[in-house]
């Protein structure tokens, strides 16, 4: 009986070890990346039922065609690559070669393995902005081939905000190597929290990626986003997060330094492509017109909206922990589901960043 009990204990321990994030020394980050950027990097939990997972950047390029006003334009190669896509203009949309309503396999991305790695798929980028005097912002960029906007409660088979291509991010702000605060991107805005406030695995903060939309939250549960930047715990258009599939973006990422003065990027590793960061167009399809049978527009909302801009457009040299978007920046000291918007309420102990 004792031996049998020991066997079950050993099996349980082994399963925990297998599912735990990979240790710092086992990660494949290039030399030169600050240790604290890795030590305090967020771990992302994908929703257990999400069909649209992190996507390899080159795989996305392999399955898209540059178009302007829905017309194909020539490029330096077909398909484009992460080394030459920057040669395309800012009016270019990287448009799916497939009808995305048919769910082609490539838009579903790559499911992380038991260690959180997206094998044979580079699905993230880490961008380090050293501002001097010990002040560093580390951006953890996450890429998905498709954003499913979510179903409208009470309206069968009706949903809004779908789009090809999806760049999301978290940012950790450091002072002398010590994490101070985090930003979680959510749709048109997001939330900021003190590092001491958020849930962690060891030293690493957790980010919960919403099912389909991939908005990042500091906690699991249901989050309404019907009214931008108000984000109550329930409503007609909701994000759902849970501790489903563990993803460690560090294990399959490109690593860069950002020079704000020169507005330039430098890879930590000579073999890492950099040019794709200078692409100023859109990662995804242009919003479909009303004449497209796939499109539905209602109450000013489109079922299929346009694809996003890339990491360079995420205010990498922001002054506040929040991006400058006209919204009040609240650095929260408690976990709450509501996002930091103009109508939001600061709780006692929260800091309003002016």
TrEMBL record:
InterPro entries: Vps62. The keyword Signal applies. Keywords: Signal. Residues 1-19 form the signal peptide. This is Vacuolar protein sorting-associated protein 62.
